[in-house]
Amino acid sequence: MSRVLIAGESWVTQSTHIKGVDSFTTSSYVVGVEPLRRALESRGHQVRHLPAHLVPAQFPADADALAAYDVVVLSDIGANSLQLAPEVFERAVPGADRLGALRGWVGDGGGLLMVGGYLSFTGFEAKAAFRNTVLHEVLPVELLPEDDRVELPAGACAAVTAADHPALGGVTGEWPPLLGYNRVLPRPGTEVLATLGSDPLVAVAPYGSGRSAVFTSDCSPHWAPTPFCEEWDGYARVFGGLVEWLAR
């Protein structure tokens, strides 16, 4: 059993309704982590989810806090949310270098997985911004300086390039289509285990005494539609395999 922290995979949506000369707004809170949480828990892992709105205040600030976990998963949560704790952003008080602490923790033996989304890697309008941080060097891939999203509205299936790698969890057969991903470039020494087109979908590499991995598409809608994240038994194998490889 591994102890897994998943940060991100939730959001608040606000809609404006206009009816003639009148208008009003409604808000909703959406949690997208459930397919990933269920998949990992089904394989015996202990999962803590830190929703996106709590990341700025509660993400582990140092090696001691990170030591509570074997694997950290960042999914659809931008670098600003990890860097800008409330005391830093709102009160201009120096705080912890949490991305620096995460880099050091991986280098000392931790496992890091980044999952794709509009606020992963470089992200929508480059707002995820991990390329500009110290965490960039931990990832097994090079990030683009511009918006890196590739939308695949007709869907595309992954091509597995290393089916026997343990990080894929022994999954076999064709993968269901995905609807998009973040484009990245492999670094020297990176093992690319699956691709979408010519771009990495799953890639892994060592970092210091630890390990890092990426899944450049999503773990929930919209890039990961229901046939992929809810109906395919390979979903738990792939994400379980990644977590188990990262946690050794």
Spatial sequence of strands, sheet with the most strands: 4-1-5-6-14-13-12-9
- Molecular shape: globular
Radius of gyration from the CA trace?
Answer: 18 Å
Mean of residue pLDDT values: 97
What name goes with the CATH superfamily? Answer: Class I glutamine amidotransferase (GATase) domain
Query: Structural class of the secondary structure composition?
Result: alpha/beta
* Beta-strand proportion: 25-35%
Number of strands: 14
Low-confidence parts lasting 5 or more residues at pLDDT below 50?
A: none
Task: Please report the distance between the alpha carbons of the first and last residues.
Answer: 11 Å
Compute the number of helices.
8
Residue share in helix: 10-25%
CATH topology: the name is Rossmann fold
Number of domains: 1
The CATH architecture would be: 3-Layer(aba) Sandwich
H/E order of the elements?
Answer: EEEHEHHEHHHEEEEEEEEEHH
**Which class in CATH terms?**
Alpha Beta
The major beta sheet can be summarized as:
8 strands, mixed
Domain Putative glutamine amidotransferase: 3-247
Protein name: Cytoplasmic protein
Pfam families: GATase1_like
Organism: Actinomadura darangshiensis
